[in-house]
Every structure is written in structure tokens, then in C-alpha cells.
């Protein structure tokens, strides 16, 4: 079995199978012109047959040298502009325009275009000798109209070689510097292929060449009738496919990357040229969508579950441009979609997404970015721009103005589908695009308007939605997903987290996970009253007290800095950064102040930044991220992402802000001091997964979450995700029955309220009496628990109705009226009475230690992820909490979190401390001009010497205090106590 037979097999398929009237022809390598990098006779024959009149004018201009001039002009233009531009734009000289390719017509209304399309000449050249300096050859080269566009190096595993040898051949045997054919942008793509695997690159750079996987999955699945890689020549490289790729997919672009420049002492922007050839899953999703939209028409929903590393911006760009030129049938005059709207869920338009759309724009003015105000969007819609790019926030602002649009069709692409697109904002968006405007002049009654409102929440026949996300929630799956035969909701297309990690596009953030636990005892201060308090709330307050206590934060910061200084800062060639995720804005301030203090004590040459929204008051001072960062040396006009690239700032402390949507590849380590779950957990930890040169792994140190909880959060999104069933709409009727049993209002009052609500009115005054009467009846209820139960059921009804009305053609006027009434009633109900419990004066924190549990790799199962549908329970009023004495509650907390040292152990520890603190040697070092780090190291060494004295007489004590998990904590606590004693003197 040889490579030659492999070549023959592929060549045979390409040259014998027609695709839309086109097939490849075999051309002998001797016809290839090594100097011009063209198959000369193929170029001339294509132009002669496809453009006889233009060819004739060219001959008149250049006479006997016409063909020679044409070939040289074509070759130099490709060398200068790249093959993509020349194929798309053709060449011109002395007023003569020559097209170099004809793409498949979008409709059959122009027969001449179809004839020209069939003039394309596709050829396959085997063993193409490309060099003018030697006889090196490439196994296969594909050409379009005499212009080489694809190279393929084949390896047959049955002869003992694989794509590894092919990759090395491209890297080390094919120097692009002196070989015109191998220059960047001269070819669309270079493939290396063995019997099972495909690799791809669009740029040869010698030893620096990077080949990317080009497989259908992590491992190509077995096929019944041939090679696992046969999809390459049967799907991707067929004549109609390669022409489609040239016309609609391959893309020349530049990528900007910000980095710190030592010379200028600031962040600079570096750009590099890229040639993007679509990856297999990108080609697959766009083509499947094309096919499905043509089959189904307008008004359907499509969920694309593509994770980080999938090249989502390019996929969205290709889809947007595809939708603008899509016809349901070849004979149609009108496109399926009049306007395509790309929605990004960010207040500032995604620059990468905008740039991709503009790079793909082959006709100026197709793409309109809405980056100013709502008036700009109104004008774009009125002018009928093909592609409009905006943020979800702007749809709500101009919903009324857009509702005037009638009879238009829309494709709405949503970048990162989350709950903000599946809630009230999306309803406004749908309503704004609705054609359900009554054109009759006669007056409508409120029942008609109500019916329209219900329909406007449902799926619209003239709007198709395309949602992209890597972490779909159950709501998202039910709204955007597709129901399979088992009644489950699944994505239309998937590119999984598992595949992205396996193919090297992202890193596995669970590979290095370290868990810490805090252990403590709480003691009630003497003389304080032993109060009876709600047990659950007190436990929560006790834990909040512990986690906000200065000593807790001090120890956690010490652990973080120890990890960062000794491990993290050495990563990514000394450029690594860390993110600290804390539970609140106040904790941002507390951690930042403590971290700055400890960094200065350690004399570190760098400090930290903090990021949170708004301002927070602490100890009488209002703090913002700007005030804290500028006080710490950051320039006021430098953004946080740019400041983090500055070597003077290596750690970023965040609360909510930057937990999602922040792409900084230098972040290697994450310290988590916040409860995370579900999608938020995945999105937060995924801040680490971006790759960059020198970054080979990541690290997570978690103080709060159990490893099993992290795995539980990630598991549904590791492979593709499904929803196990649909939301049960009957729950609405159950909730309705419960609400009616409250007797807060009558059906008549709801009907009258809705009539007035939908009528033309100058003020909301007429609505108030209906709501006020219901509020008065609610206030008359004596049992506070009953009140809260009713409130909870009303909230459940409103949430569930709001959701179900989006996903189902759900038309029940009575339920809609009840929803409208309750939506406003719940806003008027008195707020819950707060029951804040302050335990800080009643307890004292004793014996705190934060202990390392261990480092581990968290493994995910290779199985389909499952989510359950939304469930709203009517009887979810909060149960009455148990009342318990404060002292008893403290005891319960200690049983879980306490340290169980014997009394005699405490005596031994105290003896060691007294002897150390009185030691002249210790006092000399501590009082001397030594760094904080050296003092702490000396203290620990001395403590070990004192502990060693117990090895014979009390080995159990020695073993406990010298344990790797206990010794650093004991040493640190003693050292801090010694420092305080010295300061007090």
C-alpha cells in the first residue's frame, strides 16, 4: 500500500464525479509553469471560452504577445494582491476587464450567468514540481482556471507514515522565502492528510508553521465505504464546494493584539495578517443552516452551541452574509430575508465581530453598525440596510418606532444567547419587528389587542432567530432548540468544549484545581445575652461574619500571594497574571486593601488592580475601581484590560465585572472566593482557557466551592447539551387556581383593569383603584407567613407565564389578563420587612485556619449533557425557620468548621510561642533590617527547632504541628501575634 495508490484513489473520485455540472480534470505536472506559478493553457482556455469578447479586445491591445502579457499580469497580480482578491475581482489593463472565476448564480433568472459558471475549469495536478531551484514536488495541487489554490501532502499509514511526517515536510522541506507558490496568500490552504486524519494551515512559516486539526470530530468517525477522511474530497474540495468557499468564506484579515512594550513603557497594538480558511464545523453549520432555512422558510429558531475556540465571530459573520443572499427557490426574485440584524449582548459593540463582518463585505455599505443612538437604528431600518449590527439594549429603546415596519422579513443573529435575550427584552425585539399591525381604520376592542399581544410574544412567521452560545440554559434550549423524537430539546449544531480542548484551541481549566477549606471556632463573648434567633439566618450571618473578618481575608491573601510568587509569576515566560473572584463589591475593597498591604510588605515589584461597577462605601469613604486603582499607581485614563498588561500590575480582583466576556490570555491562575454554580461557574473559570505563546496550562485555587460542584456545573456543557423535556404549561392553571383562592380581587376587576390598560388614556390614575383595593385586602391578612406565600405564588405565576408565552403558541385570554393585572399588582405590594441580624458584637472568631485540601484534576464524563425544564411550584412560600439560641447555633457551626485541638496541645503551642518570643536570637532578627519574607522564613525555621524537642516525649503533638497542611498556618498565626505584640509595646 503506497501513497501513489492513495493519490490515485482521490484523483479518480475528483475526476469522475460531477457536482452541479462541474468536475476536475487531470493535468500533467509538466504543464505547470514554475516561474509564473500557473497552468498556462488552463488560464487561456478559460478566458477564451468564458469571455470571448474581452479576450478579443485584449488581443487587439497586445497583439502577438497577448497571452504572454495576460499570464504575466495575472501572476504578478496574484503575487501582489493575493489569490483571493484576484479571483474575486479579476484583472484589468488598458480598459479590458477579465474575470478569473464565475460563482454559482443565486437564482436561475440569469441563464447567461449559469453558462459562465459552467465554463470554470477545475484541475488536479499530481506530483507538482513547484521549485525553480530543485525537483521537490507536492503530492497534489488543485487549480481553478489554471490558478493553484490548494496543496495536499498525502501519507499512507499502511506504509508506516502519518500526517506528522506531512507536517514536518511542510515545516522543514518547503521554505516559502524563495518559492513564489508557497508565499503567504498565494494559496488558499495547505492540507496534510493520512488515512484517518486531516491537518490544515493557511500560512507556511518554516519551523513556525502551525497546522490545525481539520476533522469532523476529535477523531474522524469510521465510514462504511472507505477512508475516514473521504469527506475532504467528497464534501470540502468538490467543484461546487471550493467555489462556494472562494466566494463566501475565505477571508483576508488582520488580527490586533495588545501587548506591553518595554521600550515605550506602554501598551501597544500589534497587527498580523491572517488568511482564514473555514474550519470543518464552521463550513458544516453554515451549509446545514442554508439547507434547513430553504426547506423550512422563515419564522424558525436555530440554536448553535459553539464553545470558546470555535471561531464564533467568523461563523456569525459568514452566516450574516449568507442570509443576505439566500433565495428559497432558484426562480425567486426576492430574498428570504430583507434585513439581517446581528445582536451582541454587550453595551459596547464587539469590535472583533464588527471587523469580521466588514472584512467579509464585498460590496460597500452592506454592513451598518449602530454605535451612536436609536435614531441611527431607525434610519438603518428605514433605508433597508442588508446587515445591521447593534446591542440588545438598543432594541428596547426603539421598540415602538420599529413596530411601524410592515411586511418585512428579518433574520436575527444573537451572539451569546443568555437570559437577557429570552426575557422581556426579546419580547420587545419581536414586537418591534412584528407585522401584526391592524390596517383597518375601525376601532379595536381590548380583546383584539390582547390577542395581538399574546401572538407578539410567540414565534413570528417573518422572523428567524439564530442563537450562538457555548453554555445554553434550559430556557435557551426550550426557546431556541429543536425537539427530537424523544421530546427533548437539542441544539441545531454543536462544536463542543471537549473538541475545542482536544484540538488545542482552548485549555482545560479543570486540569489543575486546588481546594482549600476554612476551619474556625466561634465563641460567644462573655456577658452577652443568649438570644433566640432564626437558625438559618444566623448561620448565614455567622458565615458572612467569618468570611468578611480581617483575619480570614489576611490569611486568604497570604495564601494567594504565596501561590502567585512561587508558582504563577513564573508561568507564560514570566508574564502570567491572576484573577481573584470575590463575592461582593465590598470584598473587592477589603481584598484590594489587604493585598496592597501584603505586597508592599513582601516588597514585590508589582501590585494589583480591582474591578467592580459603581461605588461602595467602606469605613466612611466612597470607593470606586478608579479611585482605588489610581491611588495604587494606575493612570486614570488607562483601561483596566490595558493596565493589567503593565508589568506593574499582575493580579486583578473582580466581583461580577470581567467574570464573563473578558479575554486576556495572560490570565493563568484564578483564586475563587465566591460561590459559583451552573453557567456562571463555567463562564467564570473559562476566563483562563485562552491560549497564547508560552501558556501550557492553567490553575484554579478555590476557597469556597466543592470540587464535585465544579464538575456538576461543567458537565452539561462538556459535550452537546439537551433539555430532557418541555415546560408543563398546565402549571399555570394550577397557579391561577391558587391565586384565585386568595380572594384579593375579582374576575370583573381584572377585566375592567385590562380594558382601561389597553385604552387610550392620558394618565395611569384610572388603574390605581383596582390595584389599591387588592393591596388593602393583602394588608388585612394577619399571618405574615401567608402574605409571603401569596407574594411568592404571584411571582411564580408572572415568571412562568412570561416564559411560556415566548416558547408556545399559547392563546388563553384569561391567563393573559391575569398576567397583566398581577404584573402591576406585585409592584405595589409592600416590600418584605427586613430582618437583618447583627451577630458581630455577640461572637468572637477563635482558632481560624485555612487549610489546603489538595490539588487534583477534575475529570468530566464523555456523555451528553442534560438540563431539566423550568419548574415553578405554587406552594413555595418560605417555610418557618427554626428558632435556636445563639450559643447553640455557634456550637453547630463549630461542629462543622471547627478545629479539634486538645487542651494540652494548646498549652504546648503556647509554651513554644513564649520561648520563641523571648529568644534573643529571634528578637535580633525581627528587630533587624530584614525583609518581611526573610523574617517569616526565619520564624518558621526556628519554630521547627522548638517543635523538634517534642519528637520523643510527645510524638502525636509533633506529628500534628509539623504536618504540611498545619505548619504554615500555625507559623503564620504565631508570627502575626508576635508582630502585634511588638507594635503594642
- Secondary structural class: alpha/beta
Please state roughly what percent of the residues sit in beta strands, choosing from under 5%, 5-15%, 15-25%, 25-35%, 35-45% or over 45%: 15-25%
Order of strands in the sheet with most strands: 1-6-7-8-9-10-11
Number of helices: 38
Beta-strand segment tally: 35
Poorly predicted tracts of residues: 397-403, 418-426, 431-457, 875-879, 896-901
Any idea what the radius of gyration is?
34 Å
Average pLDDT score: 83
DSSP helix fraction: 40-55%
Distance between the termini: 87 Å
Q: Major sheet, described briefly? A: 7 strands, mixed
Shape: globular
Task: Work out the count of structural domains.
Answer: 4
InterPro entries: Helicase_ATP-bd, HsdR_RecA-like_helicase_dom_2, P-loop_NTPase, Restrct_endonuc_type1_HsdR_N, SWI2_SNF2
Protein name: DEAD/DEAH box helicase family protein
GO molecular function: helicase activity
Keywords: ATP-binding, Helicase, Hydrolase, Nucleotide-binding
Outline the structure in words.
A 7-stranded mixed sheet has the order 1-6-7-8-9-10-11, sandwiched between helices. By secondary structure, the chain is of the alpha/beta class. It is built from 38 helices and 35 strands.
